[in-house]
Every structure is written in structure tokens, then in C-alpha cells.
């Protein structure tokens, strides 16, 4: 095969020339054995000045890997595949840290107040506890 024919070979799976797609497939997938769910404690909180309602999550990762920092993300009800039928009145807070399974917490679908001091996360490396505090924005009633 000459060079021109080799460049024109098409991958039947993607429909693109061979070697053209190297983005996501070039990232190695980590295979770690999950050891179960972490312990957690959820506390309802209220801001004394603004009277906003919020939640504080304390998630315990006693056997977390070295140099692993937990991560969080918010997921809409339409992204998830566990609770069917999907309900727009809820959103999900996902928290993940290897080697533990990802935890999902079902929250009201109210907007989260991300202003400074209202939303924060902290990972205590001494006790391996991960804290997330969030407040919901006040609903304006007419």
C-alpha cells in the first residue's frame, strides 16, 4: 500500500480516517476495585442573617488513596438513570473519591447560592473527612 492509500483507510466504527480520533480514547481508564460506600452525615442549617436554608454534608473516607481529593458535581434529574420517572423538582449532588463508590444525594431543585461564604468545600487530610456546605437561594413569593 502506498502512502496515499494508507491515509485514506477509514475506520468502520467511527467513519473517520485511522488515527484521526486520539482524544478520549488516548486517556487510560483506571481500574480500581471499589470498597463500598463512605459514611456520611447530613445536617440541616440556616443562615442567621439571611434566614436561608441549607445543608452541610460530612463524608468520611477513612481508606482514601494517597493524593486523592474528593470531587463533587451537581446533576439534573434528566441526566440520571436511577430514579424513573425523572422528576424536575429534584437535582442530585454526586461526590466521588477512589476507591469508594460514588455517593448521590437527592436535593430539591432550588437554585444553589454560590456566593462567597455560602457555598464551600473542604477536605481534611488528617481525618479524611470531606465537607460540603450549601445554601439554597431564597424563593421570592408574589
Percent strand equals: 35-45%
CATH class: Mainly Beta
* Proportion of helical residues: under 10%
CATH architecture: Sandwich
For the record, give the distance between the C-alpha atoms at the N and C termini, rounded to a whole number.
74 Å
In sequence order, what are the helices and strands, one letter per element? HEEEEEEEE
Cα gyration radius (Å): 22 Å
Q: Looking at the structure, what is the overall shape?
A: extended
Q: What is the CATH topology assignment?
A: Immunoglobulin-like
Specify the biggest β-sheet.
Answer: 5 strands, antiparallel
Number of strands: 8
Class based on secondary structure composition and strand pairing = mainly beta
In total, the number of domains comes to 1
Structure characterization notes:
The chain has 1 helix and 8 strands; from the N terminus they run H-E-E-E-E-E-E-E-E. The chain has 142 residues and is mainly beta. It has a single domain, classed as Immunoglobulin-like (Sandwich), CATH 2.60.40. Strand 7 and strand 8 form a beta hairpin. Keywords: Metal-binding, Nucleus, Zinc, Zinc-finger. Residues 35-130 form the SF3A2 domain. It comes from Sugiyamaella lignohabitans.
